[in-house]
User: Fold these one by one.
Assistant:
Number 1:
Amino acid sequence: MEKSWRCTVCGYIHTGENPPEICPICGADASFFELVTQDDKASTSSESKAVAKPVVAQTDEKAAIRQALYRISYGLYIITAQSEGRDNGQCANTCFQITSDPARLAIGINKQNFTHELIQKSGKFGVSVLNQTGQDYARRFGYRSGRDVDKFEGLAVHRGESGVILLDDALVTMQATVLNQMDAGTHTLFLADVTNGEILQEGDPMTYAFFRASK
């Protein structure tokens, strides 16, 4: 039986083994999708029939929390990884600096994604920071699974010292080695040392809000 995934921003339901990397309705990425269980379906069915005020209030509170989280500002990044001769990349909005000395950052990756599998196997990943003309990269690396297609085909890329592929058309790229990881439910938070960095362009980085507004 195929799984069902609910976008926690707009309520869109996706059917498939994995959540879509970007919601086709509101543009939210895979981190905003939750697995719809049988209990959820039964609860939703019951709530649709009920008119009791406490149920409505609870639903409104959940929606408010999700909308509040949605207002947090994010960047958009292409996270890349390779292992055992396989390369992949995905669009992600969870990438942030932890310390400057030593240079450390963290990324959040959905456990269902192919990139997650490659990072866990190799212990390494790359980050390409998109510029404000990078909408096509966000879509290319967000709408399809790397298990099915080669997302790098036809793109200008180079391979870093760690072996990961990096975009040529990016503001900066970084390579990182995983130090630790934390189970965050549907996602894993990877803490990593930045081992290499390069500045390729000048300009402003792509933000999630800018991407949505310019679609």
Note: The chain has two domains: 4-70, 77-214.
Number 2:
Amino acid sequence: MKSKYKRILLKLSGESLMGHQGYGIDPERLGSYADQIAELRNAGVEVGIVIGGGNIFRGLSGTAKGFDRVKGDQMGMLATVINSLALSSALENAGCPARVLTSIGMFPIGEPYSPARAIESLEAGRVTIIAGGTGNPFFTTDTASALRAVEIKAEVMFKGTRVDGIYTADPEKDPTATKFDKITYDEIYNRGLRIMDLTATTLCRENGMKIVVFDMDTPGNLKKVASGDNIGTLVY
């Protein structure tokens, strides 16, 4: 494959890792993700990854059930570490070198994150998974992915979801919703579309970080997006 990009940040949803089982990590979905990512890395693309933890625990939903918000968010951060370890293991099983960096000190589970360490790892040809969110409560993994994309000097942020792009409304609820091929940050604000939380969207906008929202659950789509195929939605 011929990639349009040299270095990307891939944001993966924790919920997507559940597959059809409704909780936890589906080995089949995990293996599919690993194969797609390994293919990209083998084509010479430097791949950084941030993955959510919603398949295991979500801080906000925990707060609604009586958890302290700070402790709930910290539990969510730990969930992202579990997913990151699972993905790194799947990548290594696919013959793809991977490294887990954590925003919270967790050695030897993962090495401490710094932008310099992440860039060094990417340049060495390892898929570099950055776990633990931002390391702070009250920030989502969307914000963490936007921050890491800027810090590692990625050319673009790919947001892999179960939907094939951004729509005028939720296509799972509104059959009349129409898809955007591309959309500006300002239009996202004006239409009140929540593709990511506002902090993440603002961070990308202020730093000129393009986002491509696409369906990661269809095998082969990651390669298509990296090659510049017009699938998904470009945010610019």
Note: The mean pLDDT is 94.
Number 3:
Amino acid sequence: MSESLLGLKVPHFTASSTSEKPFSLENYSGSPLVLYFYPKDNTPGCTAETIQFNELHSDFEKLNCTIIGISKDSIGSHRKFISKFNLVFDLISDEEGHICDMFGVMKMKNMYGRKYLGIERSTFLIDRDQKVVKEWRKVKVPGHAAEVLKSAKSL
């Protein structure tokens, strides 16, 4: 998909998730969905972002809006992350990076002079018709989940 996904319908995909059954986008037709991509379980920024979404989960639920976190971590890592922080929503494992590629979130990063390909923290708000109605790229964590909730309320 192109850099900006605004107004585009998200192609159906299925993926391994921490729920009992695999995640399938078509199961969410008719209700809004938040997909947030984060680099890695149990890192400071990713943990803070995930906790913010977790704290606002009931507010999203009142809007019939589902939150799903996505990273390249394994299902085992995700399950430990969920248990450690008492998360109330599912996480998707995209170890192969297919969903990350679909949303264009894989970017060259630079840490301590080492360049590598990694997930750029990004969030997508998807409407009832499975179109991207809002996207946030290069997300700064403080206040982000509340900003996403505000946008979800406008749907």
Note: Residues 14-153 form a domain with the Glutaredoxin fold (CATH 3.40.30.10).
